[in-house]
Design a protein that fits this description.
This protein is mainly alpha-helical. It contains 7 helices and 4 strands, in the order αβαααβββααα.
Length: 136
């Protein structure tokens, strides 16, 4: 899997597929997309996968936080407050990244002694050498 081998940390939008399939016109396409299967495979293969809440991710401006309501048909995010012009999905992805990093900051950090075996494996890890903390 490309993502698992190229990124140490992956943020996913927490999708509630059961709620999405309540729209009978889109239900078949949503289930055919196999979003749940992709997430399960990614969690199995990847080093670290963090799910973030999707609330307001495409509405809030990723630069200034100002809410910019838009219909699903609008594909461009244009913020009247700061002047940011981005693709709607790219704006949402930046918000997911920021929310995920903030979520990680809130988690308690486990402090423990690292064994020599763990140190050796960290030095040999191609993922960490090639990608650093977040590769983008």
């Amino acid at each position: 899997m490309y993502y698992a081998s190229h990124y140490n940390l992956i943020f996913l939008e927490r999708l509630r597929v059961a709620n999405l399939t309540k729209n009978h016109r889109l239900a078949r396409k949503i289930l055919d997309a196999s979003w749940s299967t992709f997430k399960t495979m990614l969690q199995y293969k990847a080093n670290r996968v963090v799910e973030v809440e999707p609330a307001y991710s495409s509405i809030d401006c990723s630069r200034c936080g100002h809410p910019v309501p838009k219909s699903l048909a609008m594909r461009t995010h244009v913020c009247p407050k700061c002047g940011a012009v981005l693709d709607r999905d790219y704006n949402s992805a930046i918000n997911h990244l920021q929310n995920g990093i903030e979520l990680l900051r809130l988690l308690p950090v486990e402090r423990r002694e690292v064994t020599p075996v763990e140190i050796a494996s960290l030095r040999q890890s191609k993922k960490q050498e090639a990608c650093g903390f977040i590769h983008g």
